[in-house]
Write a structure and sequence with these properties.
CATH superfamily of the largest domain: CAP
Number of helices: 8
Bound molecules: 2-acetamido-2-deoxy-beta-D-glucopyranose
Shape: elongated
Mean pLDDT: 86
Number of domains: 2
Structural class: alpha+beta
Radius of gyration: 22 Å
Distance between the termini: 47 Å
Strand order of the largest sheet: 1-5-6-2
Oligomer: single chain
CATH class of the largest domain: Alpha Beta
Largest sheet: 4 strands, mixed
Low-confidence stretches: 1-21
Length: 272
């Protein structure tokens, strides 16, 4: 057991160096300050979804995704795509693009054009998206659904200063891992419900409606265990009774009949 610690350290070090090795694209042109603004905007919008989301993950920045976005932006190709890489940080990477044009050069080269305008444009597609039917009732919803895709954990963006490609515009590329807009059926971007009640991690740690991992265990834990599940306050999880699933034990992978049966048993227990 004693030898485990240095070994773990060595592994961490190796992992770090391997990571550096395959981060061979150039760094994002976004400054540290702008990265923070982009992240905050993403998470701001993810908190606004209506109906509320039970499994919305708080996004973190990933340099590898950002580097790929920057390399792609630099090609002046106004279509979805990724630069060639030996290895990708995710098998499937989502992508949002925004090309902002203006006759006003100062406006083109503004913080607003690099951060607030693209995010706002993507979010505004919400007016066309109908959650209940999972239908897009307007020209496009895919940027919105990627922006609020619950299971996406990382984002990384790059941009092109409007004067470097033919024409005048600011071009923003954001990459998302894992990708949104696939995998669920129906393909709604998130599970509707009490915020942080169905986090993928199965923990209920919550930062203002967004699922987080908590290392110091001092995070808010609003988790309420349903159907006779028992709360473990220490790691903010529920131990569910048999047949129940999700972090808050509110759903079942089991057939409906079994679910009804368990609900009944639970009701009897509660009455005692
Ligand atoms: C964008 O390009 C213009 C013109 O080349 C330059 O003056 C400006 O500093 C650039 N802005 C950024 C943020 O790189
Ligand atoms: C949380 O704590 C409970 C009780 O100690 C334990 O049974 C469970 O495995 C833990 N869950 C996780 C995900 O760590």
């Amino acid at each position: 057991m004693r030898a485990a610690k240095p070994l773990a350290r060595l592994q961490a070090l190796l992992h770090f160096h391997l990571f550096l090795l395959w981060t061979h694209g150039r760094k994002s042109d976004y400054s540290e300050e702008e990265i923070q603004i982009l992240l905050n905007l993403h998470n701001f919008y993810r908190r606004q979804v209506d109906p509320p989301a039970a499994n919305m993950q708080k996004l973190e920045w990933q340099n590898e995704l950002a580097s790929m976005a920057q390399d792609w932006a630099d090609t002046c190709t106004f279509e979805h795509g990724q630069p060639e890489r030996d290895r990708q940080p995710f098998e499937d990477i989502g992508q949002n693009l925004n090309k902002f044009t203006s006759s006003n050069l100062k406006r083109l080269d503004s913080l607003e054009a690099r951060t607030h305008i693209p995010l706002r444009t993507w979010w505004d597609e919400v007016t066309w998206y109908d959650f209940s039917s999972d239908q897009c009732l307007g020209p496009i919803c895919g940027h919105y659904t990627q922006l609020v895709w619950a299971r996406t954990k990382y984002v990384g963006c790059g941009y092109l200063n409007g004067t470097r490609c033919p024409g005048k515009f600011t071009y923003v590329v954001c990459n998302y891992g894992p990708t949104g807009n696939i995998g669920l059926n129906p393909k709604q971007p998130y599970i509707r419900g009490e915020p942080c009640s169905k986090c993928d991690s199965r923990h209920g740690w919550c930062d203002d409606k967004l699922c987080i991992t908590c290392t110091d265990q001092a995070c808010a834990c609003p988790l309420k265990c349903k159907n006779c599940g028992i709360l473990n306050a220490k790691n903010c999880t529920c131990t569910c009774t048999e047949g129940w699933d999700y972090a808050d034990c509110s759903g079942g992978l089991s057939p409906d009949i079994q679910t009804v049966l368990h609900a009944h048993q639970c009701a009897i227990q509660n009455r005692k």
